[in-house]
Design goal:
The structure holds 3 protein chains of 3 kinds. Chain B is mainly α. In chain B, about 70% of the residues lie in helices and about 0% in strands. In chain C, helix 5 packs antiparallel against helix 6. Classes of the chains: A mainly alpha, B mainly alpha, C alpha+beta.
């Protein structure tokens, strides 16, 4: 093996696991996070997250006991922050599935260090998202009868399955369930690792039960790998369908600004865009808290920046297409709504969106920004904000001024709106921190698989796979 | 730097006689079909322009599909596709031919596009868009788009060819660098071309999805043609070592995935318009389901989606060379049907009216693209022999 | 009496006396996946047919070396996908067009266009359950007792060791021979493991 730096293949495929780690180093490093004491930073983060989560419960309690009127929703803006936050959180979740499923199908090996945490993010984001429609029903304890086709003596009626909101119920609950299955299946071998390393009976029992008696036999791996591949194959169209169906909530209506055919792919791209931004925000933090530089390398982060650039361009392309076709349609309502978006009372939201979603990612054209942790951290937060504004702009601007000027209005959030939104951050962070604490945050067995290819084919010419 | 000129017993160069034989037959087809088209132009000008537009849209979209895929391979640093990339590049190399082949479309603006008629100025909807839909701008936009595509296509082709001799990683980097802005430019301009060339045939109608629809169809058509070419060369005894089961399994996956993506885009567009039920949008579909055009509904739903989807779903079928070969041909036909159904009902409003010029135009435009493609294989390697990832590609294995 | 009946059923813990005392097999412990693959190939050449490998990650080539067939999971999943599809059509048609007819927004009581999203979702939902539960079934998990765990270094298989077990059911199996054989293949620690 000559000087690696000048081997062109080495440059094309830089190692994904660095620092000369061995298999047992990988086991030790990742397990130690779960086995050791929580670092101080973890407690600090919990101290921020838990009170926020309590704020969520307080706001929801106040909402349920008082009524939906405590939100700023009004007529004509019947959907306000609730659905904005719902769509935003669901979108955040999409990066997890994209990383775990789509990048898996495309044999992008760099996904292995980040997929577990990203999948966890998906689950928690879906949980946060589900809160909004559930509580918008006002009586969440009865929502099961309204949302799912449960036969019941009380109502003697069925849901309207021709409504996109019902499609959404099915899409989001399927998405949550399949993501949980996918995540758990991925965890089984790693839970077996933790079981085998357990020193206390409590840990041994819990991890033992959860790992289902996994042995890592060749037979088990054979079925396991196919199951994983099938789940990836199922999740890929699923993730496309979820945000497409979310977009149908708007696009099947006749409202200018909502009724447009590009919505499904545009929403999906936006979801991936915001999801990757959230992954970058969290990964740069987790990497710093736990010193995971050898596992979450610059190459991982740079690739995520490239994904943000690509999806950001698609989102920008969709903004442009919408604007152009609104003019091209020669329909006065279409033309008005888009001008109103940019120059009406919500101009500040529109231009925040453009600045964060279209302009901010342009920095990622430059390697300097793609490889700078502070730059990507800040830009990813901008993108998160921008994607929130995107949903808000779509929802509020189309609703507040529709066909009849006499019914025009304006939406302002109340403190409960704001508290609930901040509260979901608390819930999300609390769950994510608990996950980091008690479950292997990086897929141990998968990283070893990548490491094996690296060890057995140091020239970056693996016998299997390769990138796509 | 060491790199492989030849792999094992395999030659990367076409035999001179075989090359000439194919070239001669392509030239003969070109000669006959262009002469026939010239006669057709004299006989029925309107039919000529519509038949020609279908053929032109078909091959332009396929060559743009090639351009997109070459850039995608560079952007993602793909190894599996290296041995088929040169064939994609040769398809992409035919992009500039559009400069010439778009002329009959420009010539036929009055036959094709209602907005070019004098009455358009009196139509309240059309008069509002004449700032965009007018002959001067239409042609200028077309030429700018083709110029941009040609720039990226020729540039990437030249980089790849130069790497054949140098084997330098610098060329891999340069190709990736060109591909990033190239993809952005391609999306913008191709979607504009779709609005201009096809959507504006019905100038009252509009759909924001149309550009994506056009690109998705083009990608399917491209993948089908690529597979046909690869399998054709294999059956003639070329690329048997370098494009193995593992590689055409991947090509099969792509055909499957793109077909599904096309279905997703098409369904979303259709369903949203069905659901909205606004006359200003539904008339487009209504017109395309009149009389015998209604047959195209099931043809596209089943032929362009359900049949390939369920057949290509099992792994074994994607690795079955005969089945894959059949679907390469089938999806080529389906992409043609898709475009035919988008374009032709403007002329034949009552029902399907097949015309011999539909076939003649397809052969004429196709043989022109084919000749440029084939020229690129003359005494030049069939695979990018200098690509640093070639070795990795040859060793590649599906999980 | 009861004992005799239960033993016929082959429930765990009630295996026939003879089976209970049998050995599970011989397990050897290797450093790298390559050593493991080499050992499997040597063992196959030596005439062993019933073997099982254990590793912390799937090692490619092991299945081929062991002569295993592809998993049948794909076929199971497609059946459930079609069930989900059909179930969704039935659900939407029966509730909307038969049991509770209500025209909303001028839409037909049942049409394919608005039914596609739920058809898709249910197909995916059932397929995912089929994939996971099917995998559990094929892998016989959860199973909390397995003779493999009697091997003193079984924990290596979830860390950095690559184990090869020669099954006692193998026609060629002789415990001492198998131990000697695995040692000769480079096993770091070979044990006869109780069933």
């Amino acid at each position: 093996m000559a000087d690696l730096a000048i081997d062109p293949r080495m440059e094309l495929n830089p190692p994904l696991v660095q620092g000369g780690m061995t298999y047992s180093d990988v086991t030790d490093k990742i397990s130690s996070i779960v086995e050791g004491k929580a670092p101080k930073q973890w407690w600090i983060a919990m101290a921020v997250a838990v009170p926020l989560a309590l704020l969520l419960f307080a706001c929801l309690g106040y909402l349920v006991t008082t009524g939906i009127g405590v939100w700023g929703n009004n007529s004509p803006v019947g959907w306000g922050w609730d659905i904005t936050n719902f769509v935003w959180w669901i979108g955040i979740g999409h990066a997890g599935t994209l990383i775990s499923a789509i990048l898996f199908l495309f044999r992008q090996k760099w996904r292995t260090s980040i997929n577990r945490a990203a999948e966890a993010m998906t689950l928690f984001a879906v949980a946060c998202a589900a809160i909004y429609p559930l509580f918008h029903t006002g009586r969440p304890w009865r929502a099961a009868y309204w949302l799912f086709p449960l036969p019941n003596e009380l109502l003697h009626m069925w849901q309207n399955f021709r409504s996109p909101l019902m499609w959404d119920v099915f899409a989001v609950s399927t998405y949550g369930t399949v993501s949980a299955l996918f995540w758990y299946v991925g965890l089984i071998p790693d839970l077996a690792t933790l079981r085998d390393r357990s020193t206390t009976p409590i840990r041994k029992t819990i991890y033992g039960l959860l790992s289902l008696g996994w042995r890592g036999s060749a037979t088990q791996w054979r079925h396991y790998e196919l199951a994983y591949l099938l789940l990836a194959g199922l999740s890929t169209p699923l993730v496309l369908s979820v945000h497409s169906i979310v977009s149908f909530d708007f696009a099947t209506s006749l409202l200018p600004g909502w009724h447009t055919t590009i919505f499904p792919p545009y929403f999906v791209a936006g979801a991936v865009f915001s999801g990757f931004a959230m992954v970058v925000t969290l990964m740069t933090l987790a990497r710093w808290i736990y010193g995971l530089e050898n596992l979450i390398t610059m190459k991982h982060l740079e690739n995520m920046c490239k994904v943000m650039l690509a999806t950001g361009m698609i989102v920008g392309f969709a903004y442009g297409t919408e604007f152009f076709i609104a003019w091209y349609s020669a329909n006065q309502y279409e033309r008005f709504i888009f001008l109103n978006r940019a120059f009406g009372p919500y101009w500040w939201a529109y231009w925040s969106m453009i600045a964060c979603n279209v302009i901010a990612p342009q920095f990622f054209w430059f390697k300097k920004f793609r490889t700078s942790i502070p730059a990507m951290f800040i830009l990813s937060i901008f993108i998160n904000i921008g994607m929130w504004f995107e949903r808000f702009v779509i929802i509020a601007t189309s609703l507040h001024r529709d066909f009849l000027p006499s019914s025009w209005g304006y939406f302002s959030p109340t403190w409960v709106d704001i508290g609930t939104y901040l509260g979901t951050f608390g819930l999300f962070l609390t769950l994510f921190l608990l996950f980091l604490r008690f479950l292997p945050a990086i897929a141990i067995s998968e990283v070893k698989g990548v490491l094996h290819q690296q060890v057995s084919a140091p020239h970056g010419v693996p016998a299997h796979g390769g990138s796509h | 730097m060491a790199h492989h000129r030849e792999h094992a017993s395999e030659t990367y160069f076409l035999q001179a006689e075989a090359w000439s034989a194919v070239r001669n037959s392509l030239a003969l087809i070109a000669l006959v079909s262009w002469l026939a088209l010239a006669a057709g132009y004299a006989l029925d000008r309107q039919q000529f322009h519509f038949s020609y537009l279908v053929a032109f849209a078909f091959f332009a979209s396929v060559s743009l599909g090639a351009l997109f895929f070459v850039m995608l391979q560079h952007l993602t640093g793909s190894a599996w596709s290296v041995t088929v990339r040169r064939l994609m590049e040769n398809m992409m190399r035919a992009v500039p031919l559009a400069f010439l082949l778009v002329l009959p479309v420009f010539l036929g603006v009055h036959s094709l596009y209602e907005w070019s008629h004098a009455e358009a100025a009196k139509d309240p909807v059309l008069s509002a868009k004449l700032g965009y839909l007018n002959e001067k701008w239409f042609m200028l936009r077309g030429l700018i788009a083709i110029a941009l595509w040609s720039l990226f296509a020729l540039r990437l082709y030249a980089i790849s060819r130069r790497q054949d001799d140098s084997g330098s990683i610098e060329h891999t980097r340069a190709a990736a660098k060109w591909s990033a802005p190239g993809t952005v430019v391609l999306f913008l301009t191709a979607s504009m071309a779709a609005f201009d060339w096809i959507m504006s045939l019905e100038p009252h109608w509009f759909s924001t999805m149309y550009g994506v629809y056009f690109l998705a169809g083009g990608a399917v058509g491209f993948m089908a043609v690529l597979i046909a070419v690869v399998l054709g060369l294999r059956s003639a005894g070329y690329l048997t070592q370098s494009v193995r089961e593992e590689h055409y399994h991947d090509l099969g996956k792509w055909l499957f995935a793109l077909t599904t993506f096309w279905a997703y885009v098409t369904f979303s567009q259709y369903m949203l318009i069905w659901y909205g039920n606004l006359p200003e949008e539904t008339f487009w579909f209504h017109k395309r389901l009149q009389g015998s055009w209604a047959a195209f509904g099931p043809i596209l739903v089943i032929g362009h989606f359900l049949l390939p989807f369920f057949t290509l779903l099992p792994r074994a079928n994607k690795r079955n060379i005969k089945l894959l070969g059949f679907f390469a041909g089938w999806m080529t036909l389906m992409h043609f049907c898709d475009l035919y159904w988008q374009i032709m009902p403007v002329l034949h409003t009552k029902g399907v009216a097949l015309h011999w010029m539909d076939a003649a135009a397809w052969l004429a435009v196709g043989s022109a693209y084919g000749l440029v493609f084939w020229q690129g294989l003359k005494e030049k390697p069939l695979v990018p022999v200098g690509d640093p990832r070639l070795e990795q590609c040859l060793a590649f294995h599906n999980v | 009496m009861l004992e005799a009946v239960l033993s016929k059923l082959g429930l765990p813990g009630y295996e026939p006396e003879a089976a209970r005392q049998k050995v599970f097999g011989v397990i050897g412990d290797f450093d790298t996946p390559e050593d493991l693959l080499r050992a499997i190939r040597t063992a196959r050449a030596a005439g062993y047919t019933r073997m099982e490998a254990f590793s912390p990650f799937p090692v490619h080539g092991v299945d081929e070396a062991l002569g295993a067939r592809r998993s049948p999971l794909g076929r199971i999943v497609i059946v459930f996908a079609l069930l989900g599809l059909a179930g969704a059509v039935l659900l939407q048609w029966w509730t909307g067009a038969v049991d509770y007819k209500l025209i909303v927004a001028g839409k037909p009581l049942f049409a394919l266009e608005p039914s596609v999203p739920i058809m898709f979702e249910l197909a995916v939902l059932l397929s995912a359950f089929a994939a996971v539960l099917g995998m559990f079934h094929l892998n016989r998990i959860p199973t909390y007792y397995h003779p493999f765990f009697n091997y003193s270094r079984h924990a290596g298989a979830s860390n950095d060791r690559f184990l090869l077990a020669i099954d006692a059911q193998d026609p060629k199996f002789q415990a001492e021979d198998a131990v000697r054989f695995l040692d000769s293949c480079g096993s770091r620690h070979t044990e006869v493991v109780e069933a």
